[in-house]
């Protein structure tokens, strides 16, 4: 290998490294600001990218974003049909992790469907009946609270969904991969596990239908947490308690006569 080729390769590597550093410094500095997006009416949400998403079912409807100014310029929020599409550019995903979080706060009267792709943190609040379908792909982290008549969730990837605080009449859960989902059904649980993930449920639903393909787990969360019952314990007689002595200390205090 010629020295000229080695020098050229080193030069290209240096240029690429500097370009990456410039991109990182460009988007990890600058003011943090908040803006309201006027997008129109919608009842479903699709997310592609890396953000923190806070969804509230309520009124009035709004979309508010917060983050570095340069990130906000590259954040797309558009309505197609009845769906709000939130998208960040893939090459920004790593940079976002080194900066103050890009936060999207959405308020809407009804959430029918939520589809998420990427490493997002999502919080759902305000549910008060109705039906909601959720689909997660990637490494999303989801939690929620409220009440639903029916909750359906499909997870593919290595995500985590803690929906124990959403009380649902019926919960339909499918996990494909290594993800984990926790739900709280009152009437019916229909759970399918395809992979090595885990599905847990709280409460005591009247109907439980489970199917497992692979090494995954489906189980009751309350039973998993319960401490073992060793039965009633006999009362302790204080007079039967004997003090404990340190034999080593006693030996050290002895005087040996020769």
- Assign the CATH class of the largest domain: Mainly Beta
| Percentage of residues assigned to helices | 10-25%
Structural class: alpha/beta
Order of helices and strands: HEEEEHEEHEEEEEEEEEEHH
Number of domains: 2
Q: Any idea of the CATH topology of the largest domain? A: Pectate Lyase C-like
Approximate strand percentage: over 45%
Mean pLDDT: 81
Q: Judging from the principal axes of the Cα atoms, what is the shape?
A: globular
Ends apart, CA distance between termini = 84 Å
Biggest sheet character: 16 strands, mixed
Mind telling me the C-alpha Rg? 28 Å
Provide the descriptors you would attach to this structure in a database record.
258 residues, alpha/beta, Pectate Lyase C-like, 16-stranded mixed beta sheet, disordered C terminus
Describe the protein's architecture and organization.
The protein has 258 residues and is of the alpha/beta class. It folds into two domains: 23-108, Pectate Lyase C-like (3 Solenoid), CATH 2.160.20; 112-213, Pectate Lyase C-like, CATH 2.160.20. The chain has helices at 3-27, 69-73, 93-97, 221-225, 247-252; strands at 32-36, 44-48, 52-57, 62-68, 76-80, 83-87, 103-108, 113-117, 121-128, 131-138, 141-157, 160-177, 180-195, 198-201, 207-214, 217-220. The protein has a 16-stranded mixed β-sheet that branches. The termini are far apart.
SSE blueprint and pairings:
Elements: H1 3-27, E1 32-36, E2 44-48, E3 52-57, E4 62-68, H2 69-73, E5 76-80, E6 83-87, H3 93-97, E7 103-108, E8 113-117, E9 121-128, E10 131-138, E11 141-157, E12 160-177, E13 180-195, E14 198-201, E15 207-214, E16 217-220, H4 221-225, H5 247-252
Parallel strand pairs: 2-6, 2-8, 3-7, 3-9, 8-10, 9-11, 10-11, 11-12, 12-13, 13-14, 13-15, 14-16
Antiparallel strand pairs: 1-4, 4-7, 5-6
């Amino acid at each position: 290998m010629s020295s000229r080729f080695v020098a050229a390769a080193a030069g290209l590597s240096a240029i690429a490294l500097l370009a990456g550093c410039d991109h990182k410094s460009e988007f990890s500095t600058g003011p943090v600001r908040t803006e309201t997006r006027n997008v129109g009416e919608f009842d479903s949400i699709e997310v592609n990218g890396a953000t923190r998403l806070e969804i509230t079912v309520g009124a009035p409807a709004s979309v508010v974003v917060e983050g570095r100014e340069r990130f906000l310029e590259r954040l797309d929020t558009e309505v197609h049909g009845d769906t709000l599409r939130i998208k960040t550019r893939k090459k920004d995903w790593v940079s976002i992790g080194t900066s103050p979080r890009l936060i999207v706060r959405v308020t809407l009267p009804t959430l029918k469907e939520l589809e998420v792709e990427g490493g997002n943190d999502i919080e759902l609040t305000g549910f008060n009946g109705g039906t909601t379908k959720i689909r997660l792909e990637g490494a999303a982290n989801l939690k929620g609270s409220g009440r639903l008549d029916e909750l359906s969730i499909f997870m593919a990837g290595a995500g985590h969904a803690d929906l124990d605080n959403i009380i649902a009449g019926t919960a339909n859960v499918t996990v494909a991969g290594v993800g984990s989902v926790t739900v709280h059904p009152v009437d019916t649980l229909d759970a399918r596990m395809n992979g090595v993930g885990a599905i847990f449920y709280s409460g005591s639903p009247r109907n439980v239908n489970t199917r497992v393909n692979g090494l995954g787990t489906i189980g009751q969360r309350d039973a998993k947490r319960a401490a073992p019952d060793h039965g009633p314990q006999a009362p302790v007689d204080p007079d039967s308690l004997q003090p404990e002595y340190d034999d080593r200390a006693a030996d050290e205090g002895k005087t040996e006569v020769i």
